Predict the structure.
Amino acid sequence: MVRIGNGWDNIIGDEFSKDYYLRLREYLKREYSDYTVYPEMHSIFNAFRHTDYDDVKAVIIGQDPYHGEGQAHGLAFSVPEGVPVPPSLKNIYSELRNDLGIPVPESGCLIRWAQSGVLLLNAVLTVRADTAGSHRGKGWEILTNRAIEALNAREKPVVFFLWGNYAKEKIPLITGKQHLILTAPHPSPLSAYYGFFGCGHFSKCNEFLKANGIEEIKW
């Protein structure tokens, strides 16, 4: 049985005993045994561990983890300290600088965002090395959709960052009028110039939180 160690256990804990997750677990056992899979097993649920359910102010939804060696550590778009900043995160940092004037960090580790209330949630939580999308459709999406639905059910407002078409597919799950949905193209170098740059999402998020009496995120 998976244990997150905070309020998420009460929110998604029952999912880990359901048939779909038990099938996913058996699949992952084989994958981790036969292939190199990222992130390492103890880091799979880091997004939930670093940002408790009640502490979530914003959600940034990614697709699946980085599939290069040493990059994935359970937080969407983030890499561990000392790992070169990936291209999409470089573009996120550029937009953050242009939007809020925050200098571009040298580190690609976003744990500080997570601790400030940003749930960095990939829709799929594992991936086979060098094979993007290899663990899609195996059951992870059911679990992460449950998490999004649980946040949607909260009375306390949440800001949902949906970058790219894959993330925008989550819009039907977010029905609460108290929440803010921010959409833009993906920050990948292939699409960032088609509307991600200049979207102003970081300032819009903090303005929304402030207007609702919630402490702004320390980006």
Remarks:
- The mean pLDDT is 97.
